[in-house]
Every structure is written in structure tokens, then in C-alpha cells.
Amino acid sequence: MKDKDTSKADELRELYRELILDHARSPRHFGKLTDATHSAEGINPLCGDKLKLYFRILENGQIDAACFEGSGCAISVASASLLTDTVIGMNTSDALDFFAVVVSRLRGDVDANNGKRAAIDLGKIRALEGVKEFPSRVKCASLAWHALNSAIHQDSQAVSTE
Amino acid sequence: MTHSAKVSILTAEPRPIAACRADFPGLAQEINGEPLVYLDSAASSQAPNVVIDAVADYQRHDHANVHRGVHTLSHRATDLYEGARDAVQEFIGAGSRTEIVFTRGTTEAINLVAQSYCRPKLDAGDKILITHLEHHSNIVPWQMLCKQTGAELVVAPIEQTGQVDTRQLIELMDDRVRIVAVAHVSNALGSILPLEEIIQAAHHRDIPVLVDGAQAVPHLSIDVRTLDADFYAFSGHKMFAPTGIGILYAKEALLETMPPYQGGGDMILEVRFDGTTYNELPYKFEAGTPNISGAIGLGAAIHYLNSVGLDEIAAHENRLLAYLTRSLEGIDDIRLIGTADNKASVQSFLLGDIHPHDIGTILDHQGVAIRTGHHCAMPVMDFYGIPGTARASLALYNNEDDIDRLIAALAKTKEIFA
Ligand SMILES: Cc1ncc(COP(=O)(O)O)c(C=O)c1O
Predict the structure, then answer these.
(1) Which of A91, A115, B331, B367 shows the smallest number of beta carbons within 10 Å?
(2) Which residue of A has its CA nearest to B355?
(3) Which residues of A touch B414 (CB under 8 A)?
């Protein structure tokens, strides 16, 4: 009984790690970027998450600034906040590699990426990996990343998790 | 046509309500290692054994198409299907079985009225009057109709408590309003609308009224004739029956004026290439092979509800709702959404600034099933300026232990977010 309770509690703690709660409570780079060159909206109709991400991308492909606004659950907000922290300073092709790796790891398929991508260290983004035990929340964690992908490709459509 | 399977709703002794939980096999399971606490019946209710068995028995022994075979099985299927219609008629107090149309659910029933009753009558500049607390299925069909006809959708406001502002609703009933479409009970807020007053006022101005009864039917006893509703729509799956079956009740005089909603088999008397004669009521509105097993399940659910007793159910749920509300109020940082005086079976709430979806995940992890989000009532969420709520909803099988488990699970949620 004790063990069951402990491992169950651990699963929740894995999902709602301190780092996640911290970013959910005080999201970094929150707001609108007035001189954004790229932006995209992400919508998760299931829980009503709605985020808009803004990027300023230089001509050499470097992501110079990133911001987001909107509202959502702790997981989706923390994920967007961590995303902005992570991609500032990257160039877009590295950011796209990162996107691919994050999305597949959140789904739990570790082997989906090989070669260069397999070597990518997710750093603090690993804090999101707790969602693996909560299939209904994978969409929340990956929402901002899909928006990043579509912003870089400059799709004008809002991305939806559905 | 006579139907021998007309079923009696008279039963012997009412069953004690506390014994009913054992009738629902879906409740007897563990979720994430904890006994399930099911507080999401407003989205869809669990089914009792008698409903599951009625559907299975029909599929095993009595299945054939209805209204068309001379053989024994087709007779049996027809008798069972039509017997369910009789049960519905008695259950809601309709004057005639011809006024009971089987649909896929509330949504289809409302679309049927919009397209078949309203559309031929509407001119540009006519109005359709609804309220701010409607479910999307009592909004979108009217928006579509407005696009088709140039009519205008008018929305009556609600108060902070989540009750409709009846005075304003009545003031909005001017001579361009062609139909008033209102919920009986709000699914997001639980408010019970003062239907008699609304319907009287509308009829005073010769405006027909459609009632979305999806959330009312399993909780209140309905008498469409006392209410004098012109149309009353509801769904089987919120009253212990299967999904995919629902009812449109409509006054016969109105059904008579309406063209068919869909064309096909069963809704015709005679088809020739130079013209088709439609079938009599209600078959004119039931094109194609219907959901026979769903209707039979709905009939069985009605017998079940009657065997427990609608008054007993309402009394039990009201007691529980009071206990739920009181228990929630005992939590710091709780904000109740939907606090009308007259309410049924649901309580929406927010906990601090924790997003409802996070609450839902943490509760599910402890075996407690609630609904989180906008509850298909986005305008209600906009009214309160919130993205969504957590909602606990009750049915006859819930008890105080369920609520205690909910409260404990919410305490845990706060702990994680502390
Ligand atoms: C008030 C209300 N109206 C309409 C509906 C739609 O019912 P259905 O999806 O069964 O057609 C619902 C169900 O969620 C409801 O709660």
C-alpha cells in the first residue's frame, strides 16, 4: 500500500516538477514581441490552451528573441516558457532539430531520432518528460513546440493539437 | 398500428436509492489503483445492468429491421422499438406517441427543428432568441440557420449567479422573434431556468419555444404538457441509456406543418419518380434504419428511472448537491462558478489559479473523474473571463463518500501546487 502510494505520488511529482511549477507561475519572456519576424499560434481545443509565440530571426538564421503570450495549463505554459529560454541564440535549423527530438521524446519514442539528433542534450527541457505517464497531457507539453515549428516555416495557419 | 410491447411503468416497491450503485457495473472498478469516483455524469452517465442487458438481449434474440418484415423477428424488433417510444411518451407526459421522434441525440433534435421547422418560415431580419448560457449545440445550429436565411441571433444575458436574466429575456421577445430556444438546466452552471414563466411569456406573443432538456431529464420529472413546451430535446446517454439515441418531442400541430428533415426509407408511404408521399408522424422524421438497440436501451433506462422514482432521485441529488457545495466552500481559494438559487446536479469551480486541466489530471490520478474545460459553453467562460472550470456532476448512484474523495483529491492538488 505504502509502495503503491509512494510510486503514484512520484508520478505526479515527476509531472509537476519544481522547475515546471516555477515556469508555470512565472513564465519567462512572457508578452508580445513588437518587432517579431515570425510568429504562430498554438491551440489545444481539449483544454482551451491558447498560446501565441513570437520570434525575431536574423538574416543569418539566428533566433535573436523569443516571447509568448496566452493562457493554458501549467504544462503548456511551462513548456512555452522553457522553449523561449532554450531557443534564444540558436539558429533555426538547430531549433528544428530540437523540436523533432522534444516531440518524439515526449511521446516516449527515444529511438525515433538517429545521427546528429540522437546526440542532442535536451537540458532542462527534460523536466517535461514526466508527461510520458500521462498520455492526455503530451499535447499540452508539445503545443508550443509545434508552434515554433510552424513559425519557423512561416505557416500562417494556427496549429492545433487535434 | 398496434404494439403489444407497450410497457407498463407501474412497479412494485421503489428501490432504495443507496442500493442502486450496485446496478452500475462501470462504477465497480479501480482507476490508477483507486476505486473509481465518477463525477462526470453530466457529460455522459454510466449504464445500469438492465440497460446493458436489454440491448444485449435484443441483439442476441430479437434483432431484425423494423417496420418492414412480415417475419417474426421483424415483428419483435418493431414491438420493442415502438414500445420504447411509448415509454418515452409516458415518461415526459406527451399527449400522443406521434409526437415522439427518435434522433441521434439532443444535437440532432435541435438541428431538425432549426432546419425543418424554422428555415422555411424565416425571412431576413427575423430573430432567433437564445440565452448566454446555452450549450454549443443550442447555439451553432441557430448560427448556421441565420447564415442561411439572414435572420439574426439574439442572446439574452445572464446574471453573475449564472441564472438567466428572465426579465431581459422576456423584453427581448419582440414581434420579429420566430423561436425562443433555451436550456432547461445549464450544463456548465447547473442553473434551472424558470421555464414556465419563459414559455408563458413567449406564447403570449405567439412565439414557440424549444427546450434543450439534455441536462434536465435524468434529474427532474418532466411534463411537456404542463410546461407547454413546443419542442423538447434530450439525449439518452445522459440518462443511463446508450449513446446515439435521443428524442425530439414536438407538438403534433407543429410537426404536421414541417417538411421532412432527411429523405430515405421508412419516412415514405409511396415513392414514384413523379412524386413521393411521406409517411405519417412521427415516421416522416425518421429516415433510414433507426438506432433500434439504442431506443430499446432508452426504454429500459426509463423503466429503471421509474423503478427508482424520479422524486426520490431528485431529493437524493439535491441533498448531495448541497453537501458538495458546502464541502467545496470549506476549501480555501475555491471559487464556485454557478450559484443560482435553483440548481440541479452540477457544480463548476476553480481552485486558486490552478488551471482546470491540471486539476483534472491530478484528480484522475486519484481515481476521481470530473470534467474540465469549457463544457461546450465557451460564451459562459467568456462571461466569467475564465478559460474553463472544473466541474463535478452528480447522478443517482453517487454518494457522500464520492464527495469526500473529491475533496481529499483537491487537497492533494493544492499540496502539489503549493
Ligand atoms: C445542455 C446540453 N445541451 C445539449 C447537449 C448535447 O447533447 P448531445 O451531445 O448528446 O447531442 C448537451 C451535452 O453535453 C448538454 O449538456
Answers:
(1) A115
(2) A73
(3) none
pLDDT the model gives residue B1: 38
Query: A47-106 pLDDT, tens per residue?
Result: 778 999 999 999 999 999 999 999 999 999 999 999 999 999 999 999 999 999 999 888
- At B237, the amino acid letter reads H
Domains and CATH numbers, chain A: 4-160 (3.90.1010.10)
A147-151, A154-158, B100-104, B307-311: which range is least confident on average? A154-158
Backbone angles phi, psi at B213, to 5 degrees: -95, 15
pTM of the full predicted structure? Answer: 0.92
Cis peptide before B120 (omega within 30 of 0): no
Query: Is residue B384 predicted with pLDDT exceeding 80?
Result: yes
SS3 at position A44: strand
Using the mean position of ligand 1's atoms as its centre, give its distance from the Cα of residue B138 in Å.
8
CB of B223 closer than 8 Å to CB of B93: yes
Helices (H), B113-246: 140-149, 166-171, 195-204, 224-227
Mean pLDDT of B69-90: 95
Q: Which amino acid is it at B90?
A: E
Q: Which residue has the cell 523533432?
A: A100
Nearest CA owner, ligand 1 atom 16: B187
CA distance B88 to B155: 31
- Cell numbers 505517464 correspond to A133
What pLDDT, in 10s, does the model give residues A21-33?
999 999 999 999 9
Taking an 8 Å cut-off on Cβ atoms, the answer to whether A15 and B361 are in contact is yes
Query: Which domains, ranges and CATH numbers included, belong to chain B?
Result: 3-47+309-417 (3.90.1150.10), 59-306 (3.40.640.10)
Least confident of B262-266, B343-347, B349-353: B262-266
Using a CB–CB cutoff of 8 Å, tell me whether B367 touches chain A.
Answer: no
Active site residue B376: yes
Nearest CA in chain B to A72: B355
AA identity, residue B313: I
What integer is the mean pLDDT of B376-400? 96
Place of cell 509568448: A68
Q: Are B359 and B413 in contact (CB under 8 A)?
A: yes
B236 class by beta-carbon count within 10 Å (0-12 exposed, 13-18 middle, 19+ buried): buried
Q: Give the long-range contacts of residues A64-71, CB within 8 A, separation 24 or more.
A: A64/A88, A65/A33, A65/A36, A66/A29, A66/A33, A67/A29, A67/A30, A67/A31, A67/A32, A67/A33, A67/A36, A68/A27, A68/A29, A68/A30, A68/A144, A69/A30, A69/A31, A69/A32, A70/A41, A71/B387
Q: Tell me which residues of chain B, numbers 18 to 37, contact chain A at a CB-CB cutoff of 8 Å.
A: 32-33
Give the 3-state secondary structure of residue B282: coil
Nearest to B134 by CA among B213, B60, B226, B33: B213
Closest in A4, A16, A47 to B372, CB measured: A47
With bands split at pLDDT 50, 70 and 90, how would you rate the model's confidence at B137?
A: very high
Do the bridges between strand B30-31 and strand B34-35 make them parallel or antiparallel, or are there none, so unpaired? antiparallel
Name which of B188, B198, B130, B128 is nearest B345 in CA terms: B188
